[in-house]
Amino acid sequence: MLTKTKIYLSSPHMGGAELDFVNDAFSTNWIAPLGPNVDGFEEDLKYYLGDERHVAALSSGTASIHLALQLLDVSAGDEVLCQSFTFSASANPIIYQGATPIFIDSEAETWNMCPELLEIAIKDRIEKNKKPKAIIAVHLYGMPYKANEINEVAKRYEIPVIEDSAEALGSTYFGKACGTLADIGILSFNGNKIITTSGGGALIVKTKAMKDKAVFLSTQARDHAPHYEHSFVGFNYRMSNVLAGIGRGQMQVIDDRVQARRKNFNFYKSNLDKFDSIELLQEPKGFCSNRWITCIKTDSYAKREAIRLALQNDDIESRPLWKPMHMQPVFKECLHFTNGISEDLFEKGLCLPSGSNLSEDDLNRIVEIIIETPNL
Ligand SMILES: *Cc1c(COP(=O)(O)O)cnc(C)c1O
User: Fold this and answer.
1) Which atom belonging to ligand 1 lies closest to the Cα atom of 193?
2) 5, part of any domain
3) 219-265, pLDDT tens digit by residue?
4) Same domain, 90 and 182
5) Is residue 8 part of a domain?
6) Which of 158, 201, 333, 336 could bridge 64 with an S-S bond, Cβ 3.0-4.6 Å?
7) Is the per-residue pLDDT at 1 higher than 60?
8) Same domain? 44 vs 155
9) Are residues 258 and 213 in the same domain?
10) Which pLDDT does position 2 carry in this prediction?
11) Which ligand 1 atom is at minimum distance from the Cα of 199?
12) Local structure of 255: helix, strand or coil
């Protein structure tokens, strides 16, 4: 009997050229957090994002958010408004800075930060003489947030926006690349993301001076001197030249990866859309999602669990949607502005396997199990 292979939610997918760039790093002995692959990977990203921004390759997406907060002078006692429906890494760096997160719920069209709630929160904090220092909005699962509306609110109150584009490399918003829609953008190249360096991230900024400052801080903030001289607290956050080699190989296939993930979504949609109890997130006009993960929203917790457990029984990985930060034990004391949307998504939503390396047989196997769910 043939044994079925395990299907993962989102696994790494090498293109082929990665090992050549890694071998270059070895043969030239650039085994360090600097070198030709780091420079080359930054160039590739800059070009891909539209060439108007500057990119610093860093050790993770989390480190990139932490440096973004540093660049915006967020410090102890400051308040930062953060999308509640996200992965904890969007919010943790706020705590690293000694600042306080305040969580904002989502709207129903993109599942991302609700601009109206954002404004309500800002007004409330200003009234209490606590004007927020920054906003962190997230393109969750690759779907762009309502950037025009968020930017408009942010501009009205003169608060800078950090764009958490960790899940959205390859997504666009009215033709512009996600990662370039706010004051500072960040990317992640963790193993489960649309392209990976095994672990890594990038900071996307508007000026060369800001990039230089980010690189300075990420390489231990060493002043210009023959000895080690320091006027600032630095970090060890630069990307390794070996890992940047993987990134250069991955950038050769990024368009294929986006196409494959969007194809997964369309497959799921064409097979599951006919069920009234299953809802798939549509792209509003002008929004293009890389469909990093295809998510479904069912009509009850019980149905969501029935599907998840049936998949698990066949060695297929699926996962409930992100548990909102305002519901997390670690953030339970934090102020939050909510409307029930992210709690409902957490209760009824499921992430389906979405890797760019899924075969047609894999997709058929997954869908067959889902549609056999009783009372779907
Ligand atoms: C993955 C992810 C991060 C963190 O990136 P790392 O590279 O894993 O540190 C931050 N925000 C979101 C939304 C993510 O999905």
Assistant:
1) 1
2) no
3) 999 999 999 999 999 999 999 999 999 999 999 999 999 999 999 99
4) yes
5) no
6) 201
7) no
8) yes
9) no
10) 59
11) 7
12) helix
Q: What pLDDT, in 10s, does the model give residues 6-30? A: 999 999 999 999 999 999 999 999 9
Nearest to 337 by CA among 127, 151, 149, 101: 101
Q: Kindly report the pTM of this predicted structure.
A: 0.97
Instruction: Give residue 244 CA to ligand 1 midpoint distance, Å.
Output: 17
Region 255-279 average pLDDT: 97
What residues flank ligand 1, with Cβ below 6 Å? 60-62, 86-87, 89-90, 138, 164, 166-167, 188, 190, 201
Q: Give 201-249 as a DSSP string.
A: EEEEESSHHHHHHHHHHHBT---SSSS---SS---B-BPPHHHHHHHHH
Nearest CA to ligand 1 atom 2: 166
Q: What separation in Å is there between the alpha carbon of 90 and the centre of ligand 1?
A: 7
Contacts of residue 82, Cβ cutoff 8 Å, sequence gap at least 6? 90, 91, 94, 101, 102, 103, 104, 135, 136, 325
Pocket test for ligand 1, best of 111, 164, 290 (most atoms within 8 A of CB): 164
The first and second tokens of residue 220, run together, are: 């231990």
The DSSP result for 304-342, as a single string, is HHHHHHHHHHTTB--EEPPPPGGGSGGGTTS-EE--SHH
Length of the chain: 376
Check which CATH number belongs to the domain holding 343 and give it: 3.90.1150.10
CA atoms within 13 A on the CB side of 138: 27
Among 87, 111, 178, 197, the mutation site with the greatest number of ligand 1 atoms within 8 A of its Cβ is 87
Nearest ligand 1 atom to alpha carbon 63: 9
- Do both 122 and 71 map to the same domain? yes
Instruction: Please indicate, yes or no, whether residues 315 and 221 belong to a single structural domain of this protein.
Output: no
Mark whether 205 and 322 lie in a shared domain. Answer: no
- Residue 310 domain flag: yes
Contact status, residue 376 vs residue 303, Cβ threshold 8 Å: yes
Question: Has residue 9 been placed in a domain?
Answer: no
Count of the separate structural domains present in the chain? 2
Order of all β-strands in the sheet with 287-288? 176-177, 172-173, 287-288
Please give the share of the chain, as a percent, with pLDDT higher than 90: 98
116 is in which domain, residue-wise? 18-251
